[in-house]
Amino acid sequence: MRYHRKGAKKKLMAAVLVFGSIILCFLYGMKQYQANSPVRIIFIPKVYDEDNDFWMDTIYGARSAAKELQAELTVFAPDVESDYKAQIAYIQDAITEKPDVIAISPILYSGMTDEMEQIAKAGIRLILIDSKIDQDIETSYIGTDNIHAGTALGEKMRQFVEEDTKIAVMAHVKGASTAIEREQGMRQGLGKEQDRIAEIMYCDSDYEKSYELTKELFMKRQDITMIAGLNLYSIIGAARAVDELGLGSQVKVLGFDNDKEGIQYMEEGVIDALVVQKPFNMGYLGIEAAVRAARGEPVEKVIDSGMEVITVDNIYSDENEKLLFSF
To answer: For residue 62, what are the contacts with CB-CB under 8 A and spacing of at least 6?
Structure first.
């Protein structure tokens, strides 16, 4: 009787070991399958605008990373950068698609948090590219350190300040994290000279609106001698107006981002300095982080994609030529 129970015990132990081995093999196989299967990512930038080199370079960087890492990438984007309602609709559609990761460049800092929380509740990883929201719920943020970049802009502006300088600021979308942080940094860089800021305008990331607002500004205020644009739409619209009004020698123009037109204005002396981001890096690093997160690999909470301050004096350095003339 004892022998029989002892034999049964050995058989039970053997069965447990076999079953355990099967489970381990299954789990290992699942892990290998997940590691090798394509990661599905939906990227929702602020806009798809073929006239905006910043966002086209960001999207190109994202697609390059997806191709290299063999991820399945889908891009949805509004036609206008200020159209947060369209972006919210894309977020809701993306959740129903149930991808592994949703990467977003949120138009609004506040006002989109509910949709972002829905992503997390659906078990989908959230990556933020370029802009932040008012809650810390993302897996990772990839973008420019906008306070640092804004500070660099403010410090450069301060170099041009004279006794009677008065400053206008052309911001982009009111409530966007980039607009908030860049203005904050710009004021830090200006220091006590921030008291010279006499006007703050918002162009809603529209070239024509920035142009028109700048023209109206100089019609009513001849004392403005410096204008700063906080994104590509802002700076290019302002530069067009300054150039058309023949004020290039009287008004200092500084701002964020670059394209062919902006570089031409710098060569002609209309634009004095640009804080140039690295949008290709931003898109590439964002999708790279998304793939790593989906595969259970560690991802840094914040990834700085970098920036440079460009003036006519350093525009043709080897490094800056690669950055500026990617188009």
So the answer is: 43, 73, 75, 103, 129, 283, 284, 286, 287
User: Strand ranges (DSSP E) for the chain?
Assistant: 40-44, 72-75, 101-104, 125-129, 140-143, 167-171, 197-202, 226-229, 252-256, 273-277, 302-304, 307-310
The token pair that represents 231 in the structure block: 């994104």
Q: Which amino acid does the sequence have at 48?
A: Y
Structure letter (DSSP) for residue 38: P
Return the closest-CA partner of residue 279 out of 296, 258, 254. Answer: 258
H or E stretch at 279? helix 279-294
First to last CA, the chain: 85
The phi, psi pair for 75, rounded to 5°, reads -115, 125
Tens of pLDDT along the chain (327 residues)?
A: 444 555 555 555 555 555 555 555 444 444 444 556 899 999 999 999 999 999 999 999 999 999 999 999 999 999 999 999 999 999 999 999 999 999 999 999 999 999 999 999 999 999 999 999 999 999 999 999 999 999 999 999 999 999 999 999 999 999 999 999 999 999 999 999 999 999 999 999 999 999 999 999 999 999 999 999 999 999 999 999 999 999 999 999 999 999 999 999 999 999 999 999 999 999 999 999 999 999 999 999 999 999 999 998 887 776 766 666 554
pTM of the model: 0.82
317 phi/psi in degrees, rounded to 5: -65, 155
Question: Token digits for 81?
Answer: 């950068």
Burial class (CB in 10 A: 0-12, 13-18, 19+), 35: exposed
102 vs 83: CA distance, rounded Å: 19
CB 39 within 8 A of CB 72: yes
Residue 199, helix vs strand vs coil: strand
